[in-house]
Design a protein that fits this description.
Order of helices and strands: HEHEHEEHHEHEHEHEEH
CATH superfamily of the largest domain: Periplasmic binding protein-like II
Structural class: alpha/beta
Oligomer: single chain
Strand content: 25-35%
Distance between the termini: 42 Å
CATH class of the largest domain: Alpha Beta
Shape: elongated
CATH architecture of the largest domain: 3-Layer(aba) Sandwich
Number of strands: 9
Number of helices: 9
């Protein structure tokens, strides 16, 4: 009890989706562990709406997410922004554009119009996901219906399916660095090409959210500051 009272020991509870935690948390926890080596960290998976409820009820200390509801007693600190990209394997690209492959790769590197991929099977975030809202608005405005094969909020699953040639996948730029480690060799038909999506005003702002309070334990302050420092100059 004395150690807890002087904040040498404690439990930090963080809400974040499982797929995003793999990308966002490792460098933050690495740096934080040197500042607060005796603080245990409990990472909780879930959805943003549930994280908001848990933060209100004091079940978690903070959470990291996109599309957070603005509430007067929530503090939001933006860590970084991310754009929307399309992942598609060489095999599927060749099937979809047989007369243009492989020359089309250079052209698509500058950006893709989803209208050209309307008939291609595609994996997208869940339709009720907050990260999907800008893309849904674009599709509605252009009366565009995608050939949706799989909906999942797991970016790693969508990318893996793309590498198997099951379909193209919508992914976000903050995942690209780590996704490249999963990418088959460039000479393989399973190699996944990553192209920015044009004409979609889709910028997600990934924020760390915590309660506005007159008192915060030092270990929570240190975690927030560490996360902000790690992503201060981050370019997604």
């Amino acid at each position: 009890m004395r150690e807890i009272a002087i904040e040498r020991k404690g439990l930090l509870k963080i809400g974040i989706t499982s797929s995003r935690s793999i990308t966002v948390l490792p460098p933050v926890i690495q740096a934080y562990s040197h500042i607060q080596p005796d603080i245990s960290i409990h990472v909780i998976d879930g959805v943003v709406s549930r994280f908001e409820e848990m933060l209100e009820e004091g079940q978690i200390d903070c959470f990291i997410a996109v599309g957070v509801t603005q509430k007067p007693y929530f503090c939001h600190e933006v860590l970084f922004s991310e754009k929307c990209w399309l992942a598609i394997s060489s095999r599927l690209l060749k099937e979809c554009f047989p007369d243009e492959f492989p020359e089309c790769i250079d052209r698509l590197t500058h950006g893709v119009d989803l209208k050209c991929f309307q008939n291609v099977p595609i994996m997208i975030p869940a339709l009720n996901s907050r990260v999907f809202e800008p893309l849904k608005a674009y599709l509605n405005q252009n009366d565009l219906v995608l050939n949706t094969l799989v909906t999942s909020n797991n970016s790693w699953l969508r990318f893996r399916l793309a590498s198997l040639g099951v379909g193209a996948a919508v992914v976000f730029s903050s995942f690209l660095k780590d996704l490249r480690f999963m990418n088959p060799p460039q000479e393989s038909e399973d190699h996944v090409h990553l192209f920015p999506i044009l004409n979609v005003n889709m910028t997600n702002y990934v924020s760390i959210v915590y309660r506005q309070s007159s008192f915060q334990p030092q270990y929570l302050k240190d975690f927030i500051d560490t996360a902000l420092d790690v992503y201060h100059d981050y370019q997604s």
